[in-house]
Structures are given as C-alpha cells and as structure tokens.
Write a structure and sequence with these properties.
It comes from Anopheles melas. With 228 residues, the protein is mainly alpha-helical. It has two domains: 94 residues, Transcription Termination Factor Rho, Rna-binding Domain, Chain A, Domain 1, CATH 1.10.720.60; 73 residues, HAD superfamily/HAD-like (Rossmann fold, 3-Layer(aba) Sandwich), CATH 3.40.50. The chain has nine helices and four strands; from the N terminus they run αααααβαβαβαβα. The longest helix has 22 residues. The two termini are 26 Å apart.
Length: 228
C-alpha cells in the first residue's frame, strides 16, 4: 500500500534533521513535555538494563536537555529502535511537516481506487502498522492522492501487540467484532503471514512483486523459491 523506502529515505531523515528545531519551537507544549518525560524514562530503563551506548537525558534547562535528546534520538534511530517514546516524538515532528506541506504520504497508484471500491461494496478497511496510529493518520490524511482517511474505519499499531505474534491479530479481530472467516489480512511480510496462518486467526494473503525493492529478499525467496 505504501512504499517502505519512503520511511527510510524521507520520514526518518526528516525527523533527524528537524527534531532539534521542533523541540526548541514547541518546548512548552504539553505534548512535548510528555514525550520528553517518556524519553527520559526509556533512557533510565536502558541504563538499568546496561544497553550499550544509551544516552541519558538530564533534567534542568532546555538548553541543557535538548542537545542530549537529539543525541538520544540519533542513537536510537541508528539502531532502528521502535520504542514508544521515539515513535511519538517522530510523529510530532512529522505532523509539522505534513501540515506545512513539507511531507506528502506516498501510496501506490491503485490505493485510492481500491479504497473506493471496497468501501462502496460495504467493506471496512483497517490499518495495522509498526508506525504509530498518529503517524498512520498523518500519512493517509496528507497523501499524494489527497485525504484517504475517509475510507478507513480504524487504525492499530504495536500497542495492540507485535506484528509477528498471533495474539495481536486475535485482539484486532475482537476489537472490530469480526470472526476469522470474515477478515482478510494483507501483508508483504512473509513471517507475519506465517505467524498469522499458524495461529489460525485470519485468512492471510500476501502479494509480493518480484520487482518491489521494498520487500526483503528473504520474503521474496519464500514466494518465488525457484527464481534466481
């Protein structure tokens, strides 16, 4: 549905470049205070767990705190971490970019047409992603094809569970009041589909194009085992 490389080549670099400016310009906002506290708590947990390279976040004046937050964010992103506090801060930075037009959410050309057809036929569409719910909404609201949020009935992120755990899909089905037979789960991650099928929670379907460079090679190999 969305190009994975867009996150790697656009969103993540944007967050790194603008996180310091966001913090300076929005330091007194409640959302900023909340995420700074969460980042500090995460850093303290990492320190207790003796995570290598952790950057502590001090208390005090913003002039002392912001540079350390930036270092912490750079460290976490260099490790491709998915902590809740990091994703929240990234989402806040991206929100500014989406709203001022600096960022547009990229979706494949057939997405809007498919959304229209499915909803016209009475089907409900939900998004489940490792990206936060807020980030999902921003992407679809500010997509290159316009506002696509109107087609979506709900959003889920890893707060409901990890994508490779069958309990996550069971929880989603319960939340949307659907039986496994009524739901169709679409993914380009082979391991997620396998976990789902083994758990018997939904009818997993996968579409992976050989030419799609955004899909991991090991996943392509599972779909096209005889291709060289």
């Amino acid at each position: 549905m969305c190009v994975q490389v867009d996150s790697k080549d656009t969103l993540f670099p944007y967050a790194l470049k603008h996180v310091e400016g966001y913090l300076k310009n929005n330091w007194n906002e409640e959302a900023t205070k909340t995420v700074v506290t969460a980042l500090r708590e995460q850093a303290e947990e990492d320190k207790k767990a003796e995570v290598e390279g952790v950057v502590p976040i001090p208390t005090g004046d913003s002039e002392d705190i912001i540079p350390e937050i930036v270092k912490n964010v750079e460290w976490q992103m260099s490790l491709d971490r998915k902590t809740g506090s990091l994703k929240t801060l990234q989402g806040l930075v991206w929100a500014k970019g989406y709203k001022d037009g600096s960022i547009k959410g990229h979706v494949y050309d057939d997405v809007q047409k498919a959304f229209e057809q499915w909803t016209e036929n009475g089907r409900k569409i939900y998004i489940y992603s490792s990206g936060s719910v807020d980030a999902q909404k921003l992407l679809f609201e500010h997509s290159e094809q316009g506002d696509l949020l109107k087609y979506l009935s709900g959003h889920y992120d890893t707060k409901i569970g990890a994508k490779r755990e069958k309990e996550s899909y069971t929880s989603i089905l319960k939340n949307i009041e659907s039986s496994p037979e009524e739901a169709l789960f679409l993914t380009d991650v082979y391991a997620a589909e396998t976990k789902e099928e083994n758990g018997g929670t939904t009818n997993g379907k996968r579409k992976i194009e050989e030419t799609n460079d955004d899909v991991a090679e090991e996943d392509k190999a599972q779909v096209y085992p005889n291709k060289k």
